[in-house]
Design brief:
With 432 residues, the chain is α+β, with helices and mostly antiparallel strands. It has helices at 6-18, 26-42, 55-61, 75-85, 103-112, 181-190, 197-216, 223-229, 238-254, 268-284, 289-310, 318-333, 338-351, 364-383, 399-413, 415-426, and strands spanning 21-22, 48-53, 114-119, 127-134, 137-144, 150-155, 158-162, 261-262.
Length: 432
C-alpha cells in the first residue's frame, strides 16, 4: 500500500484515535469524566447529582471496581470520584491522580450528597446524562456513542455547547468503511514502522505491565494465575501463557488496579486481548521488533473492523472480536499470508459468536481466555487443512462478509438479549 493511498492515512488515523490510554473500566471512567466536566462547568462542588444512563452503561458499571476509590463499585462511586477528585482534562485517566488523602472526601461526599441513578429508556445503546446542581444553578452534560463524546452541555437550561455524536462520514480521515482484511494485511506489510512505533510501543509497555501485575498479585477470580498453575506455570505452553497473561491483565483491571491500559474500540479489555497474546508469542519466538509492530497493527485493525459493525456496546462480548484479532496477529507473526489470516478470522468468528456481554466484572478475564483460545484455534484449524464453510450456521463466503454478518448479529440480533440482560442485572438478588 502506497503512502498516497487514502486507506493508508485512514488506517493510521484509526490507530491513533483508538489506541489511547485509559485507567479503569471505561464505562465508569466515562461517568467520572462527565461528572468532573459538569462540576467544572458548574464552577463548584454540587449538592446533587442525577446520573442518567442507557442500559448498557448501567450493565457495564454495576459490578466493576472503580480504581483509586478503595474498592468501591457502581455509578454513584464513579460520579462521586469524578466530582470530588477528577481532572476532566485527563479524559479517560480522569481519576488517575486521586490521592489516598482524597478517599475520605469521596466517601463523605457519597454520604452527604443527593445522588440518584436513572435508567434512560432510549434507543441509543451508549448514552450518559449527568446533571449536577448547587443552589439555584444546574448543569447537564450528555455523552453519546464514545466514552468522551460530549454532544451537548446545558447550564441553567441554556445550551452552551453542542457537537454531533456521529462517526466521521465517508471521506474523512477516520473512515471505518475502508477497513477490510486484505487491505489491513497490505497495510501491515507496507506501513513505515516509524509511523506506528510510538503508538504500539506504548501498547506493549502499558498492557504487559498490567498483565504482569495480574500474575504477581491476587485480583478477582485469578483466572490468569489459575491457568498457569494447572499448566506448569513458567513451563506452560506459549498458547496457555498467551491466554493467561491476557486474562491476568483483565483480572487486575476489573478489580481496581490503577495501572493504565491502551484501549481498542473504547475498551481496555479489548485492548488487552488484542495485544498481550501477540506480544507473548512474539517474545517466545524471539520475533524481530518490527515484526511485532506489524502484527499488532494488523491485530488491532482487524478487531476495530469487527467493532465498526457491532458498535461500542452490545450484548455481544467484545473480547471475541479482540481474540479474533489476536489470532490473526499471531498468524502474521508466523509469516502467514492474507489467505491464512482470512481463514483464521472466519474460523474464529464461527467458534464464539454467541458469547454474551453481561457487564464488566471478574469473569471478563475468563471470557478473554476463551476468546484468545478461539483466535488461536481458528489459525491452528486452517494450518491443519480444516475450515468452516459457507452454510455452516451463519458462516458465509468471504472473510469480510463474515465480519459483517457477525456485526449484524451483535448490533441487531442481540438487541433484545441486551435488554433482558440489563433487566436481570437490575433485579435484586441475594449475594451468593
Amino acid at each position: 500500500m502506497q503512502k498516497e493511498d487514502r486507506r493508508y492515512a485512514a488506517y493510521l488515523s484509526i490507530l491513533r484515535n483508538e489506541l489511547v490510554p485509559a485507567m479503569g473500566c471505561t464505562e465508569p471512567i466515562a461517568v467520572a469524566y462527565a461528572s468532573a466536566k459538569a462540576r467544572d462547568v458548574l464552577g463548584c462542588i454540587p449538592d446533587t447529582i442525577v446520573i442518567g444512563c442507557s442500559g448498557s452503561i448501567i450493565k457495564n458499571v454495576k459490578s466493576v471496581v472503580v480504581p483509586n476509590t478503595g474498592g468501591m463499585k457502581g455509578l454513584e462511586s464513579a460520579a462521586a470520584a469524578g466530582v470530588v477528585a477528577g481532572k476532566a482534562e485527563k479524559m479517560l485517566e480522569v481519576i488517575a491522580d486521586v490521592q489516598p488523602s482524597q478517599l475520605p472526601l469521596i466517601q463523605d461526599y457519597l454520604k452527604r450528597a443527593e445522588i440518584r441513578v436513572e435508567h434512560l429508556m432510549v434507543d441509543r445503546v451508549f448514552e450518559i446524562q449527568i446533571t449536577v446542581a448547587h443552589g439555584g444553578d444546574s448543569v447537564t452534560i450528555c455523552v453519546e456513542d464514545t466514552h468522551t463524546g460530549i454532544t451537548w452541555i446545558r447550564k441553567n437550561g441554556q445550551l452552551v455547547f453542542e457537537h454531533s455524536a456521529n462517526r466521521p462520514e465517508e471521506g474523512d480521515d477516520d473512515d471505518r468503511s475502508l477497513l477490510n482484511v486484505a487491505d489491513i494485511c497490505d497495510f501491515a506489510n507496507s506501513v513505515e514502522i516509524g509511523e506506528i512505533q510510538d503508538i504500539l510501543s506504548r501498547q506493549i509497555d502499558f498492557n504487559m505491565a498490567i498483565a504482569e501485575e495480574g500474575i504477581r498479585h491476587p485480583y478477582g477470580a485469578n483466572i490468569g494465575k489459575t491457568l498457569l498453575l494447572f499448566h506448569g506455570n513458567e513451563e506452560a505452553p506459549v498458547e496457555i501463557r498467551a491466554r493467561a497473561l491476557a486474562a491476568a491483565a483483565s483480572d487486575a483491571r476489573m478489580n481496581g488496579c490503577s495501572l493504565p491500559v491502551i484501549i481498542n474500540s473504547g475498551s481496555g479489555n479489548q485492548g488487552i486481548t488484542v495485544s498481550v497474546p501477540v506480544i507473548v508469542y512474539a517474545r517466545d519466538m524471539q520475533a524481530p521488533e518490527e515484526r511485532l509492530y506489524r502484527a499488532l497493527a494488523l491485530s488491532n485493525l482487524i478487531a476495530i473492523q469487527q467493532k465498526s459493525y457491532i458498535g461500542t456496546l452490545s450484548a455481544f462480548c467484545g473480547a471475541v472480536c479482540a481474540g479474533v484479532g489476536a489470532g490473526a496477529g499471531i498468524a502474521y507473526l508466523q509469516g502467514e499470508d492474507y489467505v491464512t489470516i482470512a481463514h483464521t478470522v472466519t474460523n474464529a468468528l464461527a467458534i464464539l459468536p454467541g458469547m454474551i456481554c453481561d457487564g464488566a466484572k471478574p469473569s471478563c478475564a475468563a471470557k478473554i481466555s476463551q476468546a484468545v483460545e478461539a483466535g488461536i484455534f481458528g489459525y491452528q484449524m486452517y494450518k491443519n487443512g480444516q475450515q468452516f464453510y459457507a452454510g455452516d450456521g451463519i458462516v458465509v463466503k468471504g472473510v469480510d462478509a463474515n465480519v459483517e454478518m457477525v456485526g449484524r448479529l451483535g448490533r441487531q440480533g442481540m438487541k433484545e438479549t441486551n435488554n433482558e440482560i440489563v433487566d436481570m442485572m437490575l433485579e435484586e438478588h441475594p449475594a451468593n
